[in-house]
Structures are given as C-alpha cells and as structure tokens.
Design brief:
With 402 residues, this protein is an all-alpha fold. It has 18 helices and two strands.
C-alpha cells in the first residue's frame, strides 16, 4: 500500500485548502504595514505591527498541538478558518488615524497569526501521518508550495480589488478565500485514530516532550528559528522599501506577487532533492540566497530593480519550501506527534516574531536600509546553523540519522 501511494490522492484534502488559505494570507500580507501607516503609524511602528503576525502564531502553537490531539486535524483546520475570518473582519474596522485604531488593527493581525498557527500544525500533522517517509519531503514541500501558489495569487487578486475598493479590497479577497478553504475542509475525512491512541497521545504533555527532545530543540531548532526569522522579515521588507522609495500600494502588491511566482515555481524540485540527497542540500542554499537578496534591496531605487531583488528573494524562499515542516516531521516521535510539532512550530515562530522586531529596532536606530541589511545577516547565520546541525541524510523510517 505504501509503495502504491500517490501524492495526488491527498490533493483535494490537503493541497486545495492550503492554496486557498495561502491566497487569503497573500491578499493581506503586502498591505499590513501599509494599512498601519494609513492609520497613522510610523515606519518602525508599522514594522512592529507586522510582527504581531508572529506574536499571534507564537501564542497559538502549543495550544494548537493540544487541540489537534484532542479534536483531530480536520476540526482544528475549521476552527482556524473561523479565527482567520474574525481577524480579517477586525482589520477592516477603521477608527481613523490614532493609537486606538492601531491597537484594534494590531489585534486583528494577532488573530490572523494565531489562525495560521493552528491551520499550519493541523495540515502538517495530517500529511505526516498519511504519507510514507520516502515521499515526506515532496509531500510537505508540495504543501508549502500550495500555500505559495495562494500567496502568489493573493497579492494580484488584492491589487485588483484595491483598484475598486482601496486598501479594504485586499481584505475582502482574503475573506472570500478563507470561506472557500473552509468549505473544502468540510469534505476532508478525519484520520482514523483509536481511542487508545488518542489517550496515549494526550498523555504526552509539553513538559514530557521537552524532556525527551531538548537536544533537538537546542540545536536543530535554533537553525529553524533563524531561518524563520529571515523568512518572516521577508514579508515586510518589500512593502516597506516600496513605500520608502515612493511606490504605490498597488505597485507594491504586484512586486510582491511577482516574487511569489518565483517562489511557487521551485517547491516540487526542492522536495525531490531533499528526499534523494538530504535536507542540507536545500536548507543551506535557501538561507544563503535569502541573506544575499536582503543586501540587494537597499541598493534599489525604483520598481524594476526592487522587482529583481524581490525575485531573488522569492527564489531563495521557494527552494526551501517545506523544509521547516520536513525537519520537524523527521525528528517527530510516533506518539505525541502534534505535541512535538507544536513545540517545533513554537521555535519557528519565535524566529517569526524576532525577525521583524530586529528590523523594527534597527530601523528605528539607524534607518530602514540598515534594518534590511541586519535581516540579511540573520540569513547567513541561519545557513551556518543549518549546515552544522541538519543530519546528512534521513533514515528509511523517516527519522534523521547522522
């Protein structure tokens, strides 16, 4: 049965909702910083509000693992869709320019981040359970790629809607996409889990998992943290620099979408390389290219050059599609996997929160260009950490070996 497994057999269950969820996020990601500026935020404050995505995700990761263990992956994804709707609606409420408007908007961004965490863990756990280990990287990179396709399409759909409805148009697109994703998830079958298996998984607490896996979290987890830091900062850099050099929100969204196209083209080859040659062959080049792309951004002064830099950034991110999920699955125990993945994603999301905070802090002290360069340095540090701690190959059972 394992030998006859085909990824297309899980396409409707896993990849369709992932693409729509990605479209929902992709529509709003380019306009988060811009919406904050429109409500009166400074550039550094806008970067801080963008970091609230990571804060929301950080707060939700551990509860997401508990939730997936207790109610199952399908119900977790449906709950995530509901939280996403609440977050987008909150972002649409505009109280004008001022601190209260920014506070409310920040709350909406936190909810979007929390929804992303719950949905991400549920879909990762679902695929890790049903896909055989020799296809794991391809399955998870395709999952990441499905999200990237949505993130690629989202800015274009958002840009078209903004021409008719202004900045709120991007949020309307997001709402439509997440409702469609929820409709697909309703048709996804639950994993077959016995009551004994669920009880055994529930008995593995976060504290017990930390005790068992602390060496993994303290080494490989640090590399994933740094990788996630530069990845999340990437979401903010292009829109902020576009605003800095005077480009319109529509142009910014289009540039972001072009970068997403490059990102989306490379996910399957990356997964194939990881399955055949090991995870380092993808993770290290990905972080090196990302770091270099950050150094290019402050050298741009117009739409064309910024698009080129953003395309390099998209390529670097795209070839690393699914790497965080794959590494997390490789080192996950059979019992208590959602609990482990919750901790793993927590490490990743610490990086997700820290990356934009570094950008915000350095921008406030030395300007936006210096903040972007600091992000590039984080990318090079991530490359070094992953080179040091990723095992050379994965064993036949899907567990990493030195």
């Amino acid at each position: 049965m394992v030998e006859n497994f085909r990824l297309r057999s899980v396409a409707a269950a896993a990849y369709g909702p992932a693409a729509l969820f990605g479209l929902s996020e992709g529509a709003v990601l380019p306009v988060i910083a811009l919406s904050a500026i429109d409500r009166g935020a400074s550039t550094s404050t806008a970067a801080l509000i963008a970091a609230m995505l990571g804060v929301g995700s950080l707060a939700a990761n551990i509860p997401a693992g508990v939730l997936a263990t207790r109610i199952g992956e399908r119900r977790s994804m449906l709950l995530a869709a509901g939280v996403m709707v609440a977050g987008v609606v909150t972002c649409l409420v505009d109280l004008g320019r001022g601190p209260w408007s920014l506070l409310l908007y920040g709350c909406g961004v936190v909810l979007i981040g929390a929804a992303s965490a719950v949905y991400g863990l549920a879909r990762q756990s679902y695929l890790t359970e049903i896909v055989p280990p020799h296809l794991r990287a391809r399955a998870l990179s395709t999952l990441g790629g499905s999200m990237r396709i949505g993130v690629f399409l989202g800015p274009f759909a958002g840009a078209a809607a903004m021409r008719a409805a202004g900045l709120p148009g991007a949020y309307y697109v997001s709402l439509a996409a997440i409702v469609a994703a929820a409709a697909l998830v309703l048709r996804v079958p639950d994993l077959a889990v016995t009551a004994d298996d669920r009880a055994a998984a529930s008995a593995v607490t976060t504290r017990k998992m930390l005790g068992r896996q602390w060496r993994v979290y303290a080494t490989l987890g640090v590399g994933v943290l740094l990788l996630s830091a530069i990845r999340q900062t990437r979401q903010t850099v292009v829109p902020l620099w576009a605003a800095h050099i005077g480009l319109s929100p529509t142009t910014s969204s289009i540039i972001y979408g072009v970068a997403g196209a490059i990102d989306a083209l490379t996910f399957y080859p990356a997964g194939k390389v990881m399955d055949r040659h090991g995870r380092r062959w993808v993770a290290v080049p990905s972080t090196l290219v990302l770091g270099a792309s950050f150094l290019l951004v402050p050298l741009t002064d117009g739409a064309v050059l910024l698009t080129v830099a953003a395309m390099v950034m998209g390529f670097g991110n795209g070839i690393g599609s699914g790497i965080v999920m794959t590494l997390g699955a490789d080192v996950s125990p059979a019992v208590g996997r959602p609990t482990h993945l919750g901790i793993w994603n927590e490490l990743a999301d610490i990086g997700t929160g820290v990356g934009p905070l570094i950008l915000s802090a350095v921008t406030a002290l030395a300007g936006l260009g210096a903040g972007i360069v600091a992000g590039g340095v984080v990318g090079f540090l991530a490359a070094g950490a992953l080179w040091r701690w990723i095992p050379r190959r994965a064993g036949p059972a899907g567990r990493s070996r030195a």
